[in-house]
Amino acid sequence: MEFFNAFLVSLQAVWNDSGFSAFTAGNGIMILVGLVLLYLAIVKEFEPLLLGPIAFGCILANFPRTGFLDEMGLMMAIHYGIANEIFPPLIFLGIGAMTDFGPLLARPSTLLLGAAAQFGVFVSLAGAMMLGFNVQEAAAIGIIGGADGPTAIYLSIKLAPHLLGAIAVAAYSYMSLVPLIQPPVMKLLTSQKEREIQMEELRPITRFERVVFPIVTTIFISLLLPPIAALLGCLMLGNLFRESGVMDRLSDTAQNALCNMVTIFLATGTGMTMSAESFLVKETLLIICLGLVAFIGGTAAGLILGKVMCRATGWKVNPLIGSAGVSAVPMAARVSQIVGMKARPGNFLLMHAMGPNVAGVIGTAVAAGTMLAMLK
Amino acid sequence: MGHPVTTNPFIIMTINMTVVFIVLMALMVLIKAIHALDPTKEKEEPKQAAPAPVAVAPPPPVEQVKEEGIPGEVIAAIAAAVTACGYSAGEIRAIRPIERNGWKVSGRSFTNNRLA
Prior knowledge:
Largest sheet of chain B: none
Structural class of chain B: mainly alpha
Oligomer: heterodimer
Helix content of chain B: 55-70%
Strand content of chain A: under 5%
Number of strands of chain B: 0
Mean pLDDT of chain B: 73
């Protein structure tokens, strides 16, 4: 009998300490959300490198009593890297090392398309404020329209850390859905004749231009907008590794090993912010809707300026490249290419669209820096 | 967190879009200035221009080199492969089948060996 009682007490103690006893319906829903995201990542291949670890982090975050954020360990270290803005600049270092600014240097006027596409950020900001979010939260939500994950995370941490999970998931989900969201807007706002425009070949870029550009840009923008010096500085440092031709080992590490490692930490850590109590709120649904508005607004604004440039240059600019101004490198540029090819087989817009695409990355960082200066 | 400068979304939008456009336009000017001040520009541009006359100088390749029995697609594929290796199409003097059947024989024996 004594043995039986001891067995029961032990069993009850194990049960009380287990996650099952504290498991809530909210945890169950969030684990299901994580599984759906995993399905999208693995089966549908929607940004699998990001959605995969985000989804797994989401599942991990919804196990009760793990104590991940109570005592120092790997999970707390990852959280520290996110909360203290360490990972987004490191991701930008890798992105810079992977980015070819050549198309932008060959046709600098495409910077304007990258600027115009930021309009979606502010449409969404206004919408968020109308729905009751405060100005800092609205700015963090609006930056989803920039289609730039690290910048969205960076700004959310600074202005609305409690919304980080929803903002990151919305940003990365929409980035992966660019091929579905953009084409209808592109077809709606452009005529067949405009889509068929073939653009002139880009001029060759010298090594001098490629090396000087990241240095000059860092000096200029960091002096003007110090809050984004870490982000933009890392982007340009990575690009300098690539273009200098004498730092190949650093470029290789930044592009591959470092970028992959930081992606694992950043994405898993972002998923870890998706606990039931912080994610299962009506604000999450609003953020996801506002993110879509931001994306569509940014795409439309880029296309409209593209149409203006088309007329101003005597039909030499295909307006489809304007939609690539929403960042989402290189997905948005690929969408411009695909829609252009459908309108006229043999119409190669990819390299032309890479100009506004990388301009969008700089534009989103500048918009984030301006909002930090105004609102923090 | 300090106080925001304004909470009016229209003002935030106007100021931000203005700043974004001004910064990116300034960057546009900087890119043009870098191109204008580029000391390597003069040296590299003639180099890129140089291959053009070379390509023009040789006789039109296709008409002269085409032998009876070689399909146009084969000539195009060979020319593409040669240009992919860094030569100009104009440098191709002739495309003709070799007298010996060594490659064909060797290919056949290789295939037979793999199947055996």
